[in-house]
Design brief:
2 strands, 8 helices, globular, mainly alpha, binds NADP nicotinamide-adenine-dinucleotide phosphate, 253 residues
């Protein structure tokens, strides 16, 4: 089997797994954060867990970039920078800024996170830097690049702003949960999750690549059920929870 054939079979298998994960997550909420519970393997330190989970996505993209020798291709460099704007932050900065005493996550969550990020790192990195016909600089003027980049950046701003609002709900060392307010939280319970698929929609459009599309579907399969659980949790926990808020998509769901 050639690496190209393997890639497309892997993409298909990955899509099928995403559909299964979506169905499972509609009934079983991933055991971390508000939903941490026993019975999912030993607990690991939350900061370390995030770094281990997210680092493969950041590192694999660099690996495929270096392997392909795309150093002189400006479009490839921009793709790498955009990806790393998200993943270098998520893997190596975000985990150290989290608040909440004695944060832990279950080891099974970390294992699933590593698998998810390895698969998606391969799908995107191998396609963009090795499999695709090399992008030429004209791509920077293509409407798909311009529109995709705009959507990606809006998603990133929403994701970062929402992460920051959540962080500010706790003083250093404080634990417990409050009702988040401001930004997209005025419309949805999981504003951070709203920003994330928006980013990857933008990335799928700006790269116009099958790998990024599959990754977007995976992200949605992961975050939509979790947003639904978060929304139900907020409504149950806070009797004064704003009635107009949706779970993840403003005015829709
Ligand atoms: N691409 C993907 O598929 C994917 C998957 C998962 C996450 N992510 C991204 O990773 C980031 C973090 O995700 P997450 O699932 O950990 O988000 P989360 O459950 O909303 O938690 C984010 C942080 O905010 C704290 N927090 C949440 N709600 C709070 C509240 N009401 N009051 C005070 N603190 C609160 C959490 O503390 P506790 O830990 O103590 O709950 C945690 O430190 C998000 O930006 C998300 O988009 C992406």
């Amino acid at each position: 089997m050639t690496s190209t054939v393997f890639y497309y079979w892997f993409s298909l298998g990955w899509l099928i797994i995403a559909a299964c994960i979506f169905m499972v997550l509609m009934f079983v909420t991933a055991p971390y954060g508000k939903f941490t519970r026993t019975g999912w393997g030993p607990l690991v330190n939350g900061t370390l867990g995030w770094v281990i989970m997210e680092a493969p996505a950041a590192l694999l993209m660099v690996f495929f970039f270096v392997l392909s020798g795309s150093y002189s291709n400006p479009v490839a460099i921009v793709f790498l920078i955009l990806w790393e704007l998200h993943y270098a932050y998520r893997a190596f900065i975000y985990p150290f800024r989290l608040r909440g005493e004695k944060r832990h996550m279950t080891s099974l969550t970390v294992v699933f996170g590593v698998i998810f990020n390895c698969g998606n790192g391969y799908l995107n990195g191998f396609y963009l830097f090795s499999l695709a016909t090399p992008y030429v600089t004209d791509w920077f003027h293509d409407p798909r690049f311009i529109i995709g980049l705009s959507v990606f950046l809006v998603g990133m701003v929403i994701n970062h702003q929402s992460d920051s609002i959540l962080r500010s709900l706790r003083k250093p060392g404080e634990t417990g949960y409050k009702i988040p307010k401001g930004g997209m939280f005025n419309h949805v319970s999981s504003a951070n999750y709203f920003g994330e698929p928006l980013e990857w929609t933008g990335f799928a459009v700006l790269t116009w690549s099958p790998g990024a599309l599959v990754f977007l579907i995976w992200t949605a399969a992961n975050l939509i059920p979790r947003a639904r659980s978060q929304h139900a949790w907020y409504q149950k926990t806070f009797p004064n929870y704003p009635k107009n808020r949706k779970a993840i998509f403003p005015y829709i769901f």
